[in-house]
Write a structure and sequence with these properties.
The complex is a heterodimer of chains A (241) and B (591). Chain A contains 9 helices and 2 strands; from the N terminus they run H-H-H-H-H-H-H-E-E-H-H. By secondary structure, chain A is an all-alpha fold. In chain A, strands 1-2 form a two-stranded antiparallel sheet. In chain A, strand 1 and strand 2 form a beta hairpin. The radius of gyration of chain A is 20 Å and the shape is globular. In chain B, a hairpin with a 5-residue loop joins strand 9 and strand 10. The relative contact order of chain B is 0.19. Classes of the chains: A mainly alpha (241), B alpha/beta (591). At the A-B interface, helix 7, helix 8 and helix 9 of A face helix 3, strand 5, helix 13 and strand 19 of B.
Amino acid sequence: MDDDKAPSPSRRQLFKSLTFVPIAAFGMSGCAKESDKPAAEAGAGAAPGEYKAAFFNAAEWAFILAACDRLIPADNIGPSASQAGVPEFIDRHMQTPYASGDIWYMQGPFVEAAPQFGYQGRLGVKDILRVGIKGIDAHCQKHFSGKTFAQLEHADQETLLKAAEAGKIELENISAREFFSQLLNETRMGYFCDPKHGGNKNMSAWKMIGYPGMRADYTNWVEVRDQPYPLPPVDLAGKRG
Amino acid sequence: MAIVKPKVDAVIVGMGWTGAIMAKELTDAGLRVVALERGPDRDTQPDFAYPRVVDELEGSIHRKFLQSLSKETITARHTMKDNAVPYRQMGSFKPGTGVGGAGTHWSGCHFRALREDFNLRSNLKQRYGAKFIPEGMTIADFPVSYEDLEPHFDHFEYVCGTSGQAGVLKGVKIPGGNPFEGSRSREFPLPPNRNYLGAELFYKAAREMGYSAYPIPASNASAPYVNPYGCQMGPCNFCGFCSDYGCLNYSKASPNVSILPVLRLRKEFELRAHAQVLRVNLDTARARATGVTYLDATGRETEQPADLVVLCAFSLFNVHLMLLSGIGKPYDPVADLGTVGRNYSYQNLNRVTLFFDDTVQANGFIGIGGGGATFDDLNGNQLDSVKAGFVGGGVIWARQPGSGPIRGISTAPGVPNWGSAWKQGVKDAFRHSFYYEVQGACMSYRSNYLDLDPTYRDAFGRPLLRLTFDWNDNEIRASQFLVGKALAMCKVLNPKALSGDAKKTGEHYNITRYQSTHTCGGAIMGTDPKTSALNRYLQSWDVPNVFAPGANAFPQNNGYNPTGMVGALTYWAAKAIREQYIKSPGALVHT
């Protein structure tokens, strides 16, 4: 990711920039073109709907958009997965070395083992998702008169995800349980990651749970008992929620 | 044709805690030392600098500071009848890599073993009779005593700026400390850290239950500090990025912060990063090491001749190197013969989580790795093994190394894994729950051991280390007993909900779930070359110019985190090298 190449600003510089430049003000006065968008969007890049998938194809992307919002739906508790940019996160995350199995042992032979020994297949996360999506869509088309997962009613989508979670459906080339577990992990990561990775737009998931983000200094709050932590989150780029 | 480097006095394999201590001590003694570290060089600047270091995705998912299993891993199975499969994704334990090793991403809990942990087998025999120790349990006494190690425990704490409260000082009990600990020659270098809510409530609950709670000795500085080497530490700011992360604040002791600033200036010391040691080279009689062979940063096979070889890799990989190099005889559990690989042990970790309503500000994102509170009323000789039904005790503690949402949010029992109810569940729990843990001892058994895998190989073409390990009844009973005590104690605090994960009868070891990085044994110290790989100075019985400090030397694991003991044992071995071995190289113990 491009961000990775940028030098880390020192702590001191970061705090300095925080005191000087409130991000909303920057968005309104500095960039004329951005100013007609809501400030929230100007601060966090493209809105989820505008992101163009680079890893997933159209069918896979439709699945990701639908499945993420069943796992983390829209409600009055907090943003949905797609509102928070989770699909964008997953699409970008699938293009990192991690998703290709960079830190996994990937040599064979690949044999079946008890679940206590973990995933023993030869796919990295990106291919687990791809193969799993294809498998789920094939399963749906067979059982729902040609419809893909994304075309099903929400209730049917939920039932299918529950079945996958419990390992109650058979998919070609992948354990449904393994696929579901990676999908859920990725969805949660995208919901709660630092916005620089594409998810958690406007730190909205952090705000939902009251996480102060990357403040990383609680010297004066360790022993406070009688009031909630007062500050909103800050992200790695120094933006304040 | 391998490149051959000029010979040095000592080559050190690995630059974590044990490597840094050895390099410091051996260069103090005037030896020329080369250290070979398989990972990159690292230092607070730029590697642990804010804000980059606190990216949870990079630290806890991409595991930036941990060993990549694509290069080296182990295989695992439950019994010797099973086929082992690779540890493909990081789970149960997390070895580090790079300069600082696991000493950069540890939490900071810095215990001394109890006096009775040193003579476990003879102590149990004396208290309960020889028959009380189950068949197949291969626990043994350490060949050193608490008194032997006391000066080294003390020194290592002063190197680390450990923050705590003495419980027994020069034989006198001090209120507020651990009344059951071995006597200390002086107070901790720094006073205890302040308490977050869960730790404060731990004292309250422990008091009501009649337990003697005390501050966990933490190598997370509670105040500005300069260690005996002149290395500076700043007070911990409770940033919440301890375990998995390098410290951004010079607050958590690490080889990088506490020792390397001195070492890096020494002419007698050379550190080579990206130097992957493949094997220790032995002479034809396999009685003497001639040096090591490694891949340098460009991938060239390179030989580093040395008079002395010190294996300072992570415990598992010390054993791996000994097996690959033919140092000592591999353990055969069927015949019960051989030494290298025997007495593998682990840590019996279990958690209870307390959930409160939103008036309780638990703030789990506030974190300090080694801080918190614990007690020893169910550990060591305080445990009545007859009543409890198991040997080897454990501690119950409050610890809060800091949790961000990517590291996972525990939800109350009954909350589903996704959907709106999950959202509500994480929202309710995130700021209003905390956990206590049971850290139990783990005994060693004939059935739990390490050897070389017959099938799988690492990125360098070497056979992987194979772990054969499962929980035994003793540890499952310990888990159930100690979690039961922890749950009873939690009830004092009236949580809205409570969850506990005691091991179920017959439960098997699950390598996918993070439990503890305290993998111990495999190349243990002892008094008998037939049953131990190392003598009391951590010197190989078979190849006396090889030393192997680390948790690999523990005959079994006690209820504490091993780092304090590992550091003390390393200083103890270094003293023997400096004062005895250098003058007269050869076996330091004769049988």
